[in-house]
Amino acid sequence: MSKKPPLTVPLLENGDRLSRHEFERRYDAMPELKKAELIEGVVYVPAAVRIVNHGRPHAQIMGWLLAYQAVTPGVDIGDNATVRLDRDNEPQPDGLLRIAPEVGGNSRISDDGYVEGAPELIVEIAASSVSIDMNAKLNVYRRNGVQEYLVWRVNDDELDWFTLQNDQYVALEPNAEGIVQSQVFPGLWLAVEALLEGDLANVLAELQRGTAAAEHQAFVERLRG
Prior knowledge:
The protein is an alpha+beta fold. It has one domain (49-224): tt1808, chain A (Alpha-Beta Complex). It is built from seven helices and 13 strands. It has helices spanning 20-28, 51-70, 130-133, 136-143, 192-196, 200-211, 214-224; strands spanning 37-39, 42-44, 75-79, 83-84, 95-99, 108-109, 115-116, 121-126, 148-153, 158-165, 168-171, 179-181, 189-191. The chain has a six-stranded mixed β-sheet, with helices on both faces. A hairpin with a 4-residue loop joins β9 (148-153) and β10. The longest helix is centred in the N-terminal third of the chain and has 20 residues, at 51-70.
C-alpha cells in the first residue's frame, strides 16, 4: 500500500490573496523569511534591505523612539513587530510606539506574543515601498485608528507625520524652530531637518528638551497613576 506524500505548506509569494489565518500559517512555515505583510488581503514580501535607503534611517528612527521609551514608563516599543489589525491586514511596520492597555492604550499583546489592535504610533521607512506606505497602508492605519503615522520618504528626503483627526489623517507641521511635536506622546519631539541631515546629536538634544518639558512630566505621572 503506497503512502501519500507528506503535505507541504505553500510558500508566501508577492501578490497572494490570503486570509489572515492562512497568511500566518505560511509565514510560520518559513522561518528564514524575515518580513512579510498582509495588506488588504494581499501579501507583500519586500526585497533585500539596503543600508543607505533603509537600514541606516531605520536604526536612527528606532534610536530616537528608544530614547523616548526609556524615560516614559507605560510606553512600549516595537521594531518590525507583526501587528494584527483586522481580518485582512497584518502589517509588520518598521517601528511602533504603544501605550500599555492598563493605562489606556488601544492595543494588547496576544497569548502567542503578537500585537493586536492599533498601536498609537506607527513608523515606516519608505524607499521602494513608498507607494504602498503612502496609499494602501496609510488608509489601513487610518481606518483601524492608528493615532499617528510617521513616514520617512528616504529617496525624497522628506518626512510626513500624520495625526488622526475626525477619522482623517492631518499633517503635523514643524513649529517655528523646525520641531514636530507628537499630539499623542507628549515630549516626543523631532528635529526634522537635523534627522534628514544625519545630525543625531541635535535630534537627541531636542528629544531631551521635549522629555524635560512639563507636559511630558504630566504624561508620565498619568501613566504611573
